[in-house]
């Protein structure tokens, strides 16, 4: 039986080259989320589940000598992102972020439009990612749609993403606090789902 990472890899690889046409993001809303993060020009940023690189141009607007590490389980998605966004301040990594032996700490870790795909490893993901933050660094789970809309979308899509659910905000807030993440931005409505926390220890 395939593991969840390889199943997701196959699913997103098969859709990568048409993804930007079939999955359209509201760029103004994406920019709004990024602006909330208070990114510094020298920040080191981890873009988890970068896909075709939706976040990258918005992150780059805030950086001078900073750096983006963009990770995805789908090498085909990464190919699309790399064609769109090149630069010495972007590193693309293929694989499962929860299994990667990062040596550096990050100022910001973004999980944009991907957190449900951690499947049964969501709480582990918060623990692992929080440990990759420097003191004062931020972890953000975010979507430009409501929780209900995201869960409905995955249910309708079926296949390996059918049961990929975004947990209730209360569950995620508790998990953040358990990992010494001080809550910064909490929004759960019809327009956005945003939870960010700052590492305090």
How many DSSP helices?
A: 8
The CATH topology turns out to be Rossmann fold
- Binned, the helix content reads 25-40%
Please tell me the total number of domains: 1
In this structure, how is the largest beta sheet organized? 7 strands, mixed
The CATH architecture designation is 3-Layer(aba) Sandwich
Give me the strand/helix succession.
Answer: HHHEHEHEEHEHHEE
Low-pLDDT parts are: none
Shape: globular
Distance between the termini: 40 Å
- Fraction in beta strands: 15-25%
SSE class: alpha/beta
- Radius of gyration, in Å, reads 16 Å
CATH class: Alpha Beta
> What is the CATH H-level superfamily?
Vaccinia Virus protein VP39
Verbal overview:
The protein is an alpha/beta fold. The chain has a single domain (4-199), classed as 3-Layer(aba) Sandwich (Rossmann fold). It is 36% helix and 24% strand. It contains 8 helices and 7 strands. The protein has helices at residues 4-15, 19-22, 27-36, 56-60, 75-84, 122-131, 147-157, 169-178, and strands at 44-48, 67-72, 90-94, 106-112, 133-143, 181-188, 193-199. It has a 7-stranded mixed sheet with strand order 3-2-1-4-5-7-6, sandwiched between helices. Strand 4 (106-112), helix 6 (122-131) and strand 5 (133-143) form a beta-alpha-beta unit. The longest helix is centred in the N-terminal third of the chain and has 12 residues, at 4-15. The protein is globular and about 40 Å long. The mean pLDDT is 95. InterPro entries: Methyltransf_25 (IPR041698), SAM-dependent_MTases_sf (IPR029063). GO terms for molecular function: methyltransferase activity.
